[in-house]
Amino acid sequence: TMATVAATMATPTPTRHRQFRVRAAWDMNPGAATVAVPKPSKAKPKPALGQSPATATTPARAPPPTHADLFARSSEDQATTGGTKKSTYMGFEKWWLPPAPEVKKPRSLYNAASLAYLGDCIYELYARRHFFFPPLSINEYNKRVMDVVKCESQDLLLNKLLGEDFLTEEERDILRWGRNIVSSKTRTRKRAGIAVYNRASSLETLIGYLYLTNFKRLEQMMFQLGFTSGASSQNIADELRSSFQKTTSTSVQSQQPAKR
């Protein structure tokens, strides 16, 4: 038994090795994350003499421009700078239409139908810009523009210019020249009548003529008709109809004999 105990003590017992997993990270830019960069301190303005610290505040920022400010365009009656009118707005020329080709005598080169073709496009662009603000749906845009560009509305606008004695003798001569346009729009002429259609075509002829010869005068005339670039929800044609109806009813009542 003693030999067995001695043999048992002499036999080494197997030891268990524990496995360890080492995780390490290498810093490719040592010292960058540990260096604290001081932030620049904003120096507060000192209150003026006799002013309490509570009232000494930084000047308020100007409010951002609204949509009406962005779409607004300096008109003829706005303030001038240094005695001269501003020729630019937001860094651009205030004339917003594409430049017209240089034509000295449009009547010798084009016929009245060609100028009316050009004036129709210019007139509709003024109408679209007039109703562009405030934002509306596409269907509402089209409805308002179509009410203004049809020949009945153009006839009302022309009567407005003639009634206010706004046009010059040369411009009236252009109107007479533009009334003799022969068009293939038989459906429109039947709906509105030949006289109304011819007067509307003469207005488009005048617009095309002024676009080629005197753009400043064109701007004055369109502004006289009520076309603006700011916020507008008015329907020019409806207002003209109501005003003409009031004028007609007043004239009819004045012509009726007084009852005894």
TrEMBL record:
<dbReference type="InterPro" id="IPR036389">
    <property type="entry name" value="RNase_III_sf"/>
</dbReference>
<dbReference type="GO" id="GO:0006396">
    <property type="term" value="P:RNA processing"/>
</dbReference>
<feature type="region of interest" description="Disordered">
    <location>
        <begin position="33"/>
        <end position="86"/>
    </location>
</feature>
<dbReference type="Pfam" id="PF00636">
    <property type="entry name" value="Ribonuclease_3"/>
</dbReference>
<keyword id="KW-0540">Nuclease</keyword>
<dbReference type="InterPro" id="IPR000999">
    <property type="entry name" value="RNase_III_dom"/>
</dbReference>
<feature type="compositionally biased region" description="Polar residues">
    <location>
        <begin position="77"/>
        <end position="86"/>
    </location>
</feature>
<feature type="domain" description="RNase III">
    <location>
        <begin position="114"/>
        <end position="214"/>
    </location>
</feature>
<dbReference type="GO" id="GO:0004525">
    <property type="term" value="F:ribonuclease III activity"/>
</dbReference>
<protein>
    <recommendedName>
        <fullName>RNase III domain-containing protein</fullName>
    </recommendedName>
</protein>
<dbReference type="InterPro" id="IPR008226">
    <property type="entry name" value="Mini3_fam"/>
</dbReference>
<keyword id="KW-0255">Endonuclease</keyword>
<keyword id="KW-0378">Hydrolase</keyword>
